[in-house]
Amino acid sequence: MLNIIAGTLSVGVTPSTNSYESIATVTVGSGGSSSIDFTSISSSYTHLQIRGLFRQASGEAIIIRFNGDTGNNYACHALYGDGATASANAAASRTNIPIERNSGMPTGSNIFGAGVIDILDYKNTNKYKTVRSLSGHDSNGSGYVHLESGLWMNTNAITSIKLTTPSAFNYAEFTQFALYGIKGV
What we know:
4% of the residues lie in helices and 45% in strands. The chain has one helix at 2-9; strands spanning 20-27, 35-38, 47-54, 62-66, 74-81, 86-94, 97-99, 113-120, 129-138, 143-152, 161-164, 176-182. β8 (113-120) and β9 (129-138) form a beta hairpin. The longest helix is centred in the N-terminal third of the chain and has 8 residues, at 2-9. The two termini are 22 Å apart.
């Protein structure tokens, strides 16, 4: 089901066996992991997509950085709600793009968030890179849904992606992120 939703949200691409190619999948083992790294990303695709099931002990956001860039070269926008209240915010001159940042990720045992992150025109060296995501979680009747966008103000092709947390807390065991290449549209 997540594949159908992801395909529908991805740049108007109809899901098919020829549209997506699995590049890499990382599943966090016992003890957790402070970061997930996708490196040496091929320039064979038009767009990239990350699909994730995630949990942290701290309940903090997913932090995205490209090509090791930790400068103030990122911006973000967010719309989020919990079924009763909707909110929005934005920030510029950031050192990263946060995903599901305002409510944090699920912290309860066996409660995972889910998300799809699209990275558009990742290899185009004539423009900045745009990111959009749809994520959320349910904590037995409470939770959030997030629609977010981000901008990496750099024209370099993306060759590596790092997913970290904003503090010293780890992604919990069984967290999984999968990177896909989306072929020409």
